[in-house]
Amino acid sequence: MPDTTTPASAAVSASLDSFFSPRSIAIVGASASAGKIGAIPLRYQLECGYQGKVYPINPARAEVQGVRAWPSLRGVEAPIDLAVFAVPSAQVDGALDDAIAAGVRNIVLFSAGYAEVGADGAAMQRRLADKARAAGIRLLGPNCLGFMNVAQDVYATFSPVVGAGKARAGSIAIVSQSGAFGAYAYALARERGLGLSWWATTGNEADIQVADCIAWLAADPATRVILAYLEGCRDGERLKAALALARAHGKPVVAVKVGRTGLGAAAAASHTASLAGDDAVYDALFRQYGVWRAHGIEEFFSIGYALSVGRLPPNDKLGLLTVSGGVGALMADDAADAGLDVAPMPEAAQRWLTERVPFAAPRNPVDVTGQVTSDPGLLEATAQRMLGDGGYGSLLVFLAAGGLSPSMAPVQTRMAAALRAAWPDRLIVFSTLSHAPLRAELDALGCPSFDEPGRAVRVVAALNHFRRHLGSGAAAPAPTPVLPALALARGTQNEADSMALLGAHGLPCVPCRAARDADAAVAAAEALGYPVALKVLSRDILHKSDIGGVALGLADAGAVRAACARLQDNLARHAPQAVREGFLVARMAARGGIECILGAHRDPVLGPVVMFGLGGVNVEVFQDVSFRLAPVDRAGALEMIGALRAAPLLCGHRGQPPADLDALADAIAALSRLAAAAGDSLESIDINPLLAYPAGAGALALDAVVTGTAATAGPAA
Amino acid sequence: MPDTTTPASAAVSASLDSFFSPRSIAIVGASASAGKIGAIPLRYQLECGYQGKVYPINPARAEVQGVRAWPSLRGVEAPIDLAVFAVPSAQVDGALDDAIAAGVRNIVLFSAGYAEVGADGAAMQRRLADKARAAGIRLLGPNCLGFMNVAQDVYATFSPVVGAGKARAGSIAIVSQSGAFGAYAYALARERGLGLSWWATTGNEADIQVADCIAWLAADPATRVILAYLEGCRDGERLKAALALARAHGKPVVAVKVGRTGLGAAAAASHTASLAGDDAVYDALFRQYGVWRAHGIEEFFSIGYALSVGRLPPNDKLGLLTVSGGVGALMADDAADAGLDVAPMPEAAQRWLTERVPFAAPRNPVDVTGQVTSDPGLLEATAQRMLGDGGYGSLLVFLAAGGLSPSMAPVQTRMAAALRAAWPDRLIVFSTLSHAPLRAELDALGCPSFDEPGRAVRVVAALNHFRRHLGSGAAAPAPTPVLPALALARGTQNEADSMALLGAHGLPCVPCRAARDADAAVAAAEALGYPVALKVLSRDILHKSDIGGVALGLADAGAVRAACARLQDNLARHAPQAVREGFLVARMAARGGIECILGAHRDPVLGPVVMFGLGGVNVEVFQDVSFRLAPVDRAGALEMIGALRAAPLLCGHRGQPPADLDALADAIAALSRLAAAAGDSLESIDINPLLAYPAGAGALALDAVVTGTAATAGPAA
Q1: Contact A584, A514 (CB under 8 A)
Q2: Is residue B420 exposed (0-12), middle (13-18) or buried (19+ Cβ within 10 Å)?
Q3: Of A36, A669, B140, B180, which is the most exposed, with the fewest CB atoms less than 10 Å away?
């Protein structure tokens, strides 16, 4: 069911410090009966060493779990930063009134029975959220498992997963829309020894969304890495702002977003009350904001772990050091897939190694062979050469089962310590079977380790990604020029109006004019210069050639008149209902361009999006298109072009001249600015074809349709 | 360096039973000094409970490790099935003489210093292998870690990995070309509790190759699953025969093959002495023989484990049962990627569930929600409905961290037992965080379990793959008609000879004739009927239109004569050195066909291969081509066509008529038979274009080049 409780504003204004770092916590519905929802958060809170005040609220008892209790929030008579509502939904209204009266600032609402159960629940949730908002109270939930601030010993959750054992404190924050996933993720983190700073599930998101959590975590000093699990998004602008904030603070965000496929999206839609949006647009969002989209839960945690333990490598070059040539080749395969630079060792360093180990493979992967068992110093000496002479930003050392060997494990730790001391800025990753104590030692030395070499390679790729987006050398995203807002006219516009609008906004359009009748068409043709193309003009006809509505290469007035008659006939015959707006006369375009398509549309969640692809089968059969959130600058537009599998066709394929990529990029950027300015009034803009001429010869839009949203009130821009 | 020790014959004739199930084992170089290469296999052998005879061989001691020793193999005077050579390479020749004298049947040779160290070593290895072969002795190695027959307590290895702890006995066999990988794999199997039947590393493969091991394992009663690690292959025919044998015995083979990418292939080539071959052709081999090519080590073991514990599902339908809607959607994404059929539950079963749990998602994924904590029977009841009413061949149950919960873990075991009893033929997989005891219980019930739901989905896909190839319903591969062997003429043949050869072998070729001069060309044109195409004929000119060597649509004798003069001129001007063979006159093909390319070539390792793709950018830019080992039948050819990303273009794209797929498939099959018959005399055959006309209208080859290998002696076929 659709969620109608979303506040209109996208701004993340009020700080959530008092929420997530509360100095006092009241637990409404605090219970003494172990296992009850009201008992669990109180028990967690009492056991964890929290330094603030805790106020159990229970009308029937003076004491709960050995702590003084209050009958109502109103009775506490002290500041309450956070109230945890662990009561059935029927009691929530009353508790909220009490909270307002008591000046409570923030509420966690576990209770279910709201938007997730249907329209009545959604209405109830909306009333609740409105009332809280009016009172200046922030709300997490309803229908959530709450949150934990591990760094500050806050456990505002009733999830039994914490009772089964606490995850250790660390620098990874996890935020999950789904409670079940959140609990699973907590257990996974605990079992793998990952250190958590913070954890939350956002449930129905009546107020606080995943985006708000990310924005708060961006500035949380305990958090170095943000792991976010999304099923959808209620407010795209808020999410964009939060991701921008995380990037500005240099905090990597790793995301799992369900609904990559049609099947997954359908399942997610049936599950979550939030709008899905187009998954390809999420990909664009993540790419543009430097988020790493994890391919699965395993990768989600592997990368989170490596970010919390390791450092971002100073360059893209990856050195592969192995005791198995075969696994070296496997890692090289994975590195090639991940686009990493497996540059060869310098010649001198290669000679050094083959002098020491004649049958070593010295290039990269560097295979020191089984020789390491008889010459344990070989490994470290080779690694030093690789980091020194080779200059690799990342070093991945594969030691097979070495970590389980009582003789090899200490070699590994000593080596890690020596390399870390000599090369503090490098990413050093081990792939070896090992037990928890060795892993912990390597972690402490800033060297993540993995059983599986393929996973280690993928992690190196992710950390390079974050270096490019967040590292000291990363360029801050260039501010994209923004046009003043404009409102597109409602509905579909005819080709003449569409081309005029695009031309006025910097898109290279073929010179063309609207003409009411044959006389006007001839006049237009004379003004434009022969030969011309003639098309019927009607906002109702999208595929003009299908109804015989196009005539090309008309060389003189006679030909134009004849074509006018013919086209009018065809229109009358094949589309008698279509509104008639006369003709469009256009100068014939020069031959030789490559057909591209360029478009924009408004994603229901993430807003204006620009799309680019090559014409014909590339788009229709291979679905080879690039998306970006609008606006993009020229560099972003060039990246879009380069991301196409068909990009070689634009770069001088089979002796053809390379296309004018700058002109294409300028056209993409111009359309993206227009789309961004059109905002909510944008339904879609399609330019098809956009001809790409050889370098220096520009690009040219031959046909276009602009469609404003039906709801837009404004006149044509 | 190339390996020249491969025996020419591909037949796997002699049984390896006495090798891998020896009744007696001699250890040459048996030592008492712990840690020495000669001490380790004896220690393993003595400790493991082996029932056969063990003969330590040591010229200096009457007793080694508390067991009577013999000074030489000659002194044993009892049958020796297997001799393990744990001596430096300098002593190997003498030991081999002793072995021959003593009638030893099989030898494991650990020693290094052979083909892997250069030409001298390769020559030494060749002499050794020849001598052993002449004496009827089979050889594993040199430069290998040996083998273990876990089921029969044979430990003919010196790898320290076994000393660190033995893997439990089970039904998984591992064969690895690489020793380092083999040791790593053994440790991984042990750490994960996988049960092994057998393990071997083949090293330099002077005699026994990975293929021979697979062939033996095909009939080994202890082995249910074969995991094979390949870096290359010395004998493609042997590998094909072994894989066919494994399939005939219904044994799944999971393979890791390095060198997927150029980078990985280069690393593998520098590491292994075996020929690489084209990786795409390995893909074809694996596909055709029903091998699952694992994407990494993790998947290699996950699938091996699931095959050893679970069963092959009776149908492709996958039911997803989850306690988290979000993870349900994630699994649906993964299932869609894997091409699984996530069919919805029947309506009645959906109603049943929503009556019981109003807010459940009943379709598929089936989300029973957190309700399971208060209603533990819900999970099993839903699963029963899914297997019963839903008829799902596979059921994947996601329980988050449930396996770690003292209350939920027993629910899970009870459920597994009940489902197994009620549905013995289904594949039931759990994804839950759990500890080893729960996993072992689920394993014992035939239900594999995984931490990560994505991995579980991938495993279900693999087991469905094996059902299709090996299951009771799997069709035995149809015998492909084989032509009598034929020898192609050496070198490149001109278009006329090429077309004639193809036409004679059932390929639909445009009617055409060779003509020595203009008079003959006119005669040919009259015989074929106008209009005709004219081309210069020369085996030296592959791209005739580039030199102005093609004239199309010639309507009469005059046009033909004029074109002859023009083409001859062009040839003289642009390719004066080219051999002149006159002209080819061809009937003009009907318009409207889709351009395809069809080819064959001989892979240096795996032999004749057939290739199909669509013309133009599909092949050149998108590399969208299908390969299969030749021959293929019509069904295999249709599968090749369907595997193209561009396949929709042949199936009636944008209102065009669908192409004549049967005619295309017949052409592919015909060329594949010709390629198979040509065998070693085949260098390449290229048909470009092959026009695909609308269904019923056939296909037509317009141009072709046949090239025989330079070494071929025979006349033109």
Answers
A1: yes
A2: middle
A3: A36
Residue type, A373: T
Q: How many CB pairs lie under 8 A apart between chains A and B?
A: 248
Angle (CA) A340-A342-A344 rounded to 5° is: 160
The sign of the CA dihedral A661, A662, A665, A667 is negative
Return the biggest CA–CA distance within chain A: 100
Peptide bond into B531 cis (omega under 30): yes
For residues B39 and B69, give the distance between their C-alpha atoms in angstroms, rounded to a whole number.
13
Q: Are residues A575 and A606 in the same domain?
A: no
Give the CA count within 13 Å in the CB-facing half-sphere of A170: 25
pLDDT for the residue numbered B44: 93
Residue A2 confidence (pLDDT) above 70: no
pLDDT in tens, B298-338: 999 999 999 999 999 999 999 999 999 889 999 999 999 99
Share of chain B above pLDDT 70, in %: 95
Instruction: Tell me which residue has tokens 């046949």.
Output: B706
Q: A271, B181: Cβ pair inside 8 Å?
A: no
CB atoms within 10 A of CB B4: 12
Map tokens 């005399």 to a residue.
Answer: B681
Q: Secondary structure of chain B: what % helix, strand, coil (to 5)? A: 40, 20, 40
Average pLDDT over residues B254-274: 78
Is B420 within 8 Å of B447 (Cβ atoms)? yes
Same domain, A526 and A450: no
- Tell whether A7 is covered by a domain: no
- Tokens describing residue B366: 């089936």
Give the DSSP H or E segment for B616: none
User: Looking at the partner chain, which of A161, A179, A258 has a beta carbon nearest the beta carbon of B333?
Assistant: A258
**DSSP H or E segment with residue B442:** helix B436-444
∠ CA B158-B161-B162, nearest 5°, is: 75
Q: What is the DSSP annotation of A299-337?
A: HHHHHHHHHHHS---SSSBEEEEES-HHHHHHHHHHHHH
| Spatial contact of B233 and B3, defined as CB atoms under 8 Å apart | no
Residue B242's CB is within 10 A of a number of other CB atoms, namely: 27
Domain hosting B330: range is 311-470
Q: Do A178 and B325 touch (CB under 8 A)?
A: yes
- The answer to whether residue A714 scores a pLDDT higher than 70 is no
Question: What letter would DSSP give residue B89?
Answer: G
At A30, is the secondary structure helix, strand, or coil?
A: coil
A452 within domain boundaries: yes
> Dihedral sign, CA of B19, B23, B28, B33?
positive
Residue that finishes a domain, picked among A307, A331, A355: A307
Q: Chain A residue with minimal CA distance to B179?
A: A324
Measured between CA atoms, the residue of chain B closest to residue A328 is B267
The length of chain A is: 717
**B717 in a structural domain:** no
3-state secondary structure of B628: strand
| The pair of three-digit structure tokens given for residue B700, joined into one six-digit string | 């037509």
Angle formed by the axes of helices A661-678 and A495-504, nearest 10°: 100
Q: Which tens digit of pLDDT belongs to each residue from A241-281?
A: 999 999 999 999 999 999 888 888 888 776 554 444 588 99
Which of these three, A255, A285, A307, is where a domain ends?
A307
Tell me, what's the pLDDT at A68?
96
Residues of B in contact with A451 (CB under 8 A): 188
Q: Report the first-to-last Cα separation within chain A, whole angstroms.
A: 35
Write the CATH number for B651. 3.30.470.20
Domain membership flag for residue A194: yes
Decide if pLDDT at A12 tops 80: no
Contacts of A648 in chain B (CB under 8 A): 621
List the CATH number of the domain containing B318: 3.40.50.261
pLDDT at B13: 42
Number of domains making up chain B: 4
